[in-house]
Dihydrofolate reductase family protein
Amino acid sequence: MGLLTFSLNLTLDGCVDHQEGIADDETHALFTRLMDEAGAMLWGRVTYEMMESYWPAVARGDEEAPPAMREWAAKLEAKPKYVVSATRKDFPWTNSHHIAGDLREGVQRLKDATPAGVLLGSGKLATELDRLDLIDEYQLLVHPRIAGHGPTLYQGGLPGTRQLELLSAKPLRNGVVAMHYRRAR
């Protein structure tokens, strides 16, 4: 069984608005490495639609982008992408698959079938999967910014505190700190 790793950008005040992070070659290289190590990506519908609206065009060369972003886009195109949605059934982007029905069962099946692990990149979905006790690790990029607005990580709340074990903390040149935690069980 593979691990489910939640990975996301957030500011010091917990804002997870994708426009608030520092998107440079170093952060893209880090996320490319995380994606390379994982066997599949997992998103909620909103994140999928945001990604689908931009990255396929970068992969095709229809959008101008620096080399690190092109590399990410090409690898993302080839990577299996799984989407949780109760409202959308059709996911035409290359290698996209729908997880329908019981959330716990669907995600557990995905973990069981993906020995290299699954990389989760949706904040709202992470809250639901954490409530179901399915997240094993957290790879968070903490950006040196205070956004002063939401959405924020886990704003929907959890039933209890999650104890984590720090595996690594690496500062990047741009001031971002890459934090890697494992769930203490």
